[in-house]
TrEMBL record:
<dbReference type="InterPro" id="IPR011989">
    <property type="entry name" value="ARM-like"/>
</dbReference>
<dbReference type="InterPro" id="IPR024660">
    <property type="entry name" value="UCS_central_dom"/>
</dbReference>
<dbReference type="InterPro" id="IPR016024">
    <property type="entry name" value="ARM-type_fold"/>
</dbReference>
<protein>
    <recommendedName>
        <fullName>UNC-45/Cro1/She4 central domain-containing protein</fullName>
    </recommendedName>
</protein>
<dbReference type="GO" id="GO:0051879">
    <property type="term" value="F:Hsp90 protein binding"/>
</dbReference>
<keyword id="KW-0963">Cytoplasm</keyword>
<feature type="domain" description="UNC-45/Cro1/She4 central">
    <location>
        <begin position="4"/>
        <end position="99"/>
    </location>
</feature>
<dbReference type="GO" id="GO:0005737">
    <property type="term" value="C:cytoplasm"/>
</dbReference>
<dbReference type="Pfam" id="PF11701">
    <property type="entry name" value="UNC45-central"/>
</dbReference>
Length: 258
């Protein structure tokens, strides 16, 4: 019940979830720390809230875990998004972005209310373009990395030159986590991620069995993503990608290559 011990425990967990996440996830599951994180997030103590909300967001790194953890913490995240503390507010925004984007590129999955991804994306862009604080802007980019799987967000973001230029400026940092988020946004905007074409027979069988069948968004067709690519080239992405090639992170360089 000691606050300092809680803060140290959850801070350590956050560090593990950013590197050896298998270890972090094992500890998270075995020690039942999700309840503690949610309890801390609702404590009205800014320090406990910030530590806990960061751990909640980081623990939802994979889709299967994101659904469970974020569904438990979604109400807390909504409350913390109203916080007067910008750091807490933006991290809660990333958590809400993870919930909204967990449908991936499937336009048939209606996990959130219509337009929610776009609403969250606009909030991320506002932080990204107006905050002088690097940490606030890096979390904003993290949120956009998830939200930019949504085709409506892609179309809106690629026309937001101020946000695109802000992402280009963030590329000057050396933080591999930040650069991975930004290059993920570029991969999503250009539709250069791996896509698995659904087998027609399996899709027909799923429809007959009244199972969910993923659908591609109309704005993810060839004409749409080629136009987005053209806009990014016009905005100056080529020189940014060339600069990013020099980074030591293999993950970032793979994204750049795409």
């Amino acid at each position: 019940d000691d606050v300092q011990s809680r803060v140290r425990t959850i801070s350590t967990l956050s560090v593990l979830l950013q590197g050896p996440f298998d270890t972090g996830n094992a500890i998270l599951g075995s020690q039942n720390l999700v309840d503690l994180m949610i309890q801390m997030a609702g404590s009205c103590d800014p320090l406990q809230e910030r530590i806990a909300v960061e751990a909640i967001v980081l623990s939802a790194s994979k889709k299967d875990k994101a659904a469970g953890i974020l569904s438990l913490g979604s109400e807390i995240l909504k409350d913390l998004y109203q916080s007067a503390n910008e750091q807490i507010k933006v991290i809660a925004l990333v958590g809400l972005s993870k919930i909204a984007s967990s449908k991936g590129t499937d336009s048939a999955a209606n996990l959130v209310t219509e337009g929610s991804c776009q609403t969250l994306s606009r909030a991320c862009c506002k932080f990204l373009t107006t905050s002088p604080n690097f940490e606030i802007r890096r979390w904003s980019a993290d949120g956009l990395a998830y939200l930019s799987l949504d085709a409506d967000v892609k179309e809106e973001l690629v026309d937001n030159i101020l946000a695109i230029k802000s992402l280009f400026n963030l590329c000057q940092c050396e933080d591999a986590h930040v650069l991975y988020s930004i290059t993920t946004i570029f991969v999503n905007l250009t539709n250069t991620y791996d896509t698995k074409k659904a087998d027609k027979e399996m899709a027909d069988l799923a429809t007959y069995a009244k199972q969910h069948v993923p659908k591609e968004h109309p704005k993810d067709d060839t004409e749409s993503y080629e136009e987005r690519r053209r806009k990014l080239v016009d905005a100056g992405i080529i020189s940014v990608l060339v600069q990013l090639c020099k980074h030591k992170s293999d993950n970032c360089r793979e994204q750049v290559a795409r």
